[in-house]
Here is the input.
Amino acid sequence: LFQQVTPLPKTLEYLLLISDQAATCTTASGTTYSLAGSATNEVYKFYTSSNVAAGTVLSCDAPITALGDASSTDEEHQIILGPVWAYGLSTTTTVSTTTTST
Here is the structure.
């Protein structure tokens, strides 16, 4: 499953982000994670072994999937977003359009 918003429910010893397109993910503190890869193979990824704190929310400019290893249990997880309201996130998107007469 791919998503553009990913809240992390546990502190992770490592974080792996994967997509089929280039993407940049940003946290509320301004940390950015850029997925790099190949347009030929359509595989883009980012990996860090630095601890990422529980409660961190990744906002990405393209759909990604996230995997991580919980530091408290040493178990691997695929992190899938549940209902956005459960995380206090907005479901409202503002779209602006311009109409031109000819």
